[in-house]
Design goal:
The complex is a heterodimer of chains A (254) and B (255). By secondary structure, chain A is mainly α. Helices cover 81% and strands 0% of the residues of chain A. Helices cover 36% and strands 25% of the residues of chain B. In chain B, strands 6-7-8-3-9-10 form a six-stranded mixed β-sheet, sandwiched between helices. A four-stranded antiparallel β-sheet of chain B has the order 2-1-4-5, covered by helices on one side. Chain B is built from nine helices and ten strands. By secondary structure, chain B is α/β, with parallel strands linked by helices. The chains are: A mainly alpha (254), B alpha/beta (255). At the A-B interface, helix 8 and helix 9 of A face strand 6 and helix 3 of B.
């Protein structure tokens, strides 16, 4: 019992101690305070950004871009994943093309996308959609492609035709894979969001981080960075919750 | 359950069946007939092709030569007229017990209330009332298999195929399930084709036993089981016919 208390103690106090050490390193002049702001300045900058309204507007526009872009990428990824996963001729044709493009880091397409679509919302949303598409496509593809034959046989022996088979057997069976794909896809989406915003934008978290760097407001940069961390954690937790809700049977399946 | 008036009529006919997978021949010139209302057990050693035969009858796999006929019609793909109970249960894990059992009924466009009532009847028949809203992962193996049986039955097929359905269960659960199956069989008068490698199980359940050869599978011999129904384990073990039959089958299989 004693060791358990020590673990709990250590667990609770790690972050506060970490923050205190950070604060001290910065305050005691071992590093340039401007370049390495202490948590207290970061917090003050945070309050400043809320009061000025820029935090809320940056957050709104970034979330809008990710939401729309991810939704488009997820929708297309799912549809194409089902098509290439279930229909052989499509797998060998369209599937082949998608597979050739997939290994290319989506970031590499940023200049091309900006050239073709400008620096407005469209280019960012398209890039995010493009980047989210691939992990979702391949996981959906693998999911529907690897549904156990016996489920299909069981369904058919109960009279299932194509539509029922797809909606009531194949998609549910593939849902753990699909959710994994979505989880990886949202990660891609965040990366592309920041890259796109840093390359050409007038608002957004990524933009704010970039622009703050130019005016030596490192404290504001860190506010943006920490917010991204929080968003990442929240989406991660959201997907774990989603997986538990939609596929409660998956972990416990033999 | 619709009583078949032509109780002597052949309902399933396997005719000169050949099934091969690339180089491997699993079934060679297999022929037998099953009468409506019969309980047939097909015995053979592991790997002799029993599952292949059943999968071909079900329409899951295509024969290389020969045919399977259901009431005169060729079977080449799965049909709700032929129900199937799998060794590994194959319940849909994302569906509850009642959703699994009503699966075939939903496809047949039965209304919600009718569907649920019918499904509940079958769930009761396999002694799982109270478990309608549980998921397969919350059930034991024996319970899952009972759902599998209810699901196949609820669809009212002409024939039910069972692929070593109790092989994954412990000996005690197996005996309980066998007795339950016979109860259901008597109640529903379904035609059953049941495969197993367990001779005791085959004699206990069947009207006729088809013994297969080693791979590639052919009919070695067909035995009639002249033990009165209803049967139970208490009386079975001392039944003379049972003992004699078991000796004969054992001798045959050991050759």
């Amino acid at each position: 019992m004693v060791s358990k208390k020590i673990y709990l103690f250590a667990h609770i106090f790690t972050i506060p101690i970490f923050l205190v050490i950070w604060e001290l390193i910065s305050e005691l002049g071992y590093v340039n305070q401007i370049l390495f702001p202490p948590p207290s300045s970061i917090f003050i900058a945070f309050i400043e950004m809320i009061k000025s309204g820029e935090l809320v507007s940056d957050l709104s526009i970034s979330l809008m871009r990710i939401f729309v872009g991810f939704l488009i990428g997820a929708f297309l990824g799912l549809i194409f994943g089902i098509l290439t996963g279930r229909i052989e001729i499509i797998r060998y044709t369209l599937g082949q093309i998608i597979e050739i493009i997939r290994p290319i880091p989506a970031i590499a397409f940023l200049p091309v996308v900006i050239l073709w679509f400008g620096v407005g919302e469209l280019s960012k949303i398209l890039l995010i959609a493009f980047g989210s598409f691939f992990p979702i496509w391949i996981n959906a593809h693998d999911g529907v492609n690897s549904v156990e034959k016996s489920y299909i046989w069981a369904a058919k022996s109960l009279g299932a035709k194509s539509k029922t088979l797809l909606l009531e057997v194949i998609l549910p069976a593939a849902s753990p894979f699909i959710i994994t794909g979505l989880r990886i896809g949202i990660g891609s989406a965040f990366t592309l969001l920041i890259v796109a915003e840093m390359a050409g934008a007038f608002a957004g978290i990524g933009f704010r981080i970039d622009v703050s760097h130019l005016v030596f407001r490192i404290d504001k940069m860190f506010v943006g960075i920490i917010i991204l961390g929080i968003l990442g954690t929240l989406t991660h937790k959201l997907f774990i919750f989603l997986a538990r809700k939609v596929t409660p049977w998956y972990d416990t399946k033999q | 359950m619709i009583q078949n008036n032509n109780m002597e009529k052949t309902i399933v006919e396997v005719k000169n069946l050949y099934v091969s997978f690339s180089e491997l021949q699993a079934v060679r010139n297999l022929s037998f007939k099953v009468k409506a209302g019969d309980f047939i057990c097909v015995i053979g050693q592991s790997g002799c092709g029993k599952t292949t035969i059943l999968n071909t009858i079900a329409g899951f796999i295509k024969s290389t030569k020969g045919s399977v006929l259901l009431a005169g019609t060729k079977i080449e793909k799965p049909t709700p007229k032929i129900g199937f109970v799998f060794q590994k249960y194959v319940l849909f894990p994302w569906k509850t017990v009642i959703e699994n059992v009503e699966f075939g009924l939903k496809i047949k466009d039965f209304g919600e209330r009718k569907r649920k009532n019918l499904a509940r009847q079958y769930i009761k028949m396999v002694n799982l009332n109270g478990f309608e809203n549980k998921y397969p992962y919350q059930l034991s193996g024996g319970m899952e298999q009972r759902v599998g049986i209810a699901r196949a039955l609820a669809n009212n097929p002409d024939v039910i195929l069972m692929d070593e359905p109790f092989a994954s269960l412990d000996a005690i659960t197996r005996m309980v399930m066998q007795e339950l199956l016979l109860e259901i069989y008597i109640k529903t008068k379904k035609t059953v084709i049941f495969i197993t490698h367990n001779i005791d199980e085959a004699i206990f359940l069947a009207d006729r036993i088809i013994v297969l050869t080693k791979k590639p599978a052919q009919v070695r011999k067909i035995f009639q089981v002249n033990v009165q129904r209803p049967r139970d384990y208490k009386t079975m073990s001392s039944n003379k016919e049972y003992i004699k039959l078991k000796e004969n089958i054992l001798a045959l299989v050991k050759e």
